[in-house]
Amino acid sequence: MNQYIKSDLYRYYGKCDAITFCKAYVKNKAFRFQCAYRLCNSKRVEKVIGKILWGINQTKKQIQIPVNTKIGYGLYIGHGGPLVINSSAIIGDNCNLSQFVTIGSNDGKAATIGNNVYIGPSVCIVENVKIGDNVTIGAGSVVTKNIPDNATAAGNYAKVINFNHKGKYIHNKWNRKNNKEAFLKHKNNI
Description:
It is a single chain. By secondary structure, the protein is α/β, with parallel strands linked by helices. The protein folds into two domains: 1-60, no CATH class; 62-169, UDP N-Acetylglucosamine Acyltransferase, domain 1. It is 30% helix and 19% strand. The protein is built from five helices and 15 strands. The two termini are 20 Å apart. Mean pLDDT is 88; it is low at 186-190.
C-alpha cells in the first residue's frame, strides 16, 4: 500500500491494515478522495489507477484540491469537507483540515502550512502566508499574516492568542522515520 495512503489511514483510524482500509474506503468519502489524489501523485500502475479513480470520484465537487497540490503525509479532512485549496498551496505532514476551509490566493502563490497544524471550521487562509509547525487556527479565522510555530491563532483577522496548546488537536500523528515501529507496536497490541 502507498505510504501516503497508509499515513492518511493511520490519521483517521490509528491503524493501517487491509481491513481498516477496506472499511474506510467504503464508508469515508474524504478518505476515498484522498486515495485517488495520492495515487494520482504516484508512479507507474498506481498513477493510472489513481487517474481512473480521480475521474469517477464524485467527492471532487465538495473537496476541491487539485492533483498538483503538494501535501505531506497524514492528511486528515474532518467531516468530509467541503474545502477549497489553491494548487500552489503547500501543506505539511499531519495536518487537519476542517469543513469549509479555504486556502487561496488572488495574486499568485497560496499559503505554506507547516507540520502538525489544525485548521478549524470556516477558516480562510489568504495569499502567500507561512503557518508554522504545531499551530492551531480557531474556527472562523481569516489568516492574512504569518503565524509562528507552536501558536494558537484566532479571529478576523487572525492574531496569536497564546502558545499553550501546540498540536493539541492532532491525533494519530504519522511519523515518517518510525512508522514501521508504530505499525508493529499497534499490531502486537491487537
